[in-house]
Amino acid sequence: MRGQPNHLTAVAVSTGVPKHYKVAVCSELGKPLNIETRPRVEELSQGQVRVAIHNAAVNFADILTCAGKYQEKPELPFVPGAEFSGEVTELGEDVTSLRAGDRVLGLCMPGAEGSYAQERILPEISLYQVPSSLDYRGAAALMVSYCTAWMALKRKAKLKEGETILITSAAGAVGLAAVDLAANVFNAKVIAACGSPEKGAIVKQKGAHTVIDYRTESVKGRVKEITDGHGADVIFDAVGGDVFKDCLRCVAFEGRILVIGFASGDIPRIPANVLLVKSCSVIGLYWGSYSMRDPLAFKESVNGVLQLVKEKKISPHISRAFPLSQVNEAFQFVMSRKSVGKVVLDIASDASLNA
User: Fold this and answer.
1) Could you report the per-residue pLDDT of 321-341, keeping only the tens digit for each?
2) How far apart (Å, rounded) are the C-alpha atoms in residues 113 and 86?
3) For the whole model, what pTM was predicted?
């Protein structure tokens, strides 16, 4: 039975398995990753689960970490990657919520080896069942972007039905998730800003009411025009720099600006006098930190997003998948700003890893 501890699984599934597995390793900051072989841990500890990784997502934070430009700086060498999907292959003692063969998704937390690997051993409490409507790629692409956007809109901004929200970098992974949630769950009026007509078309398909092209239009001017001078009630900004300055100029009276990231590389200075005059708020969010600082809020965000997937209200968009052996090409694809939504790594299907 699913609810009973399974003490025999580890023995049953470990017969004849390989003694080693492959990982992508960052050995030197700013340099390409290498594929290396690691010895397989033979015995699981109590409460641990072995997962065969099918897919891992490529997040901008992974790229920054490998360049030494992220706030978290793991000791070299390290295996990067956070979110993943895979299949349970082995259970340690006293694991009660999972069984061998279950499809799961989860995060490799800071301080632990990352998800760019053929397998990982994780605590049972860090794994979640994949909804039947998602394949492995979609499951790997879900957690960071959608849970960040869900917590930002629900917990931080308290976005209300009918409010107008401006979402910058709307074709990016977290931006497109925010568009999906704001339009299809919160029933807000979504103004999406992105960098090309092609990206704008996909953003509109996700539910944006109006699209602003950074390259040819003024964000401030268009928001004021669209809202008849009122401004955006909520602004979801993952860009920073000059874009954030435009956001500050077009936020509504008593509006809320969500600071999600700084894709431009420019961390803006915030003039406090503008906050005073507009009676507006600037609210930061680092979703990953909630896993340690407020685990209940973290779990609530994950369960909330998974429920919305089960109800078929949201779905992640994947622009491209690369085999793990081409992880450096995947990094370049994201850095070149060609991606829309998420880029994932195919791991279980990468035959070159078993050569």
Assistant:
1) 999 999 999 999 999 988 999
2) 16
3) 0.93
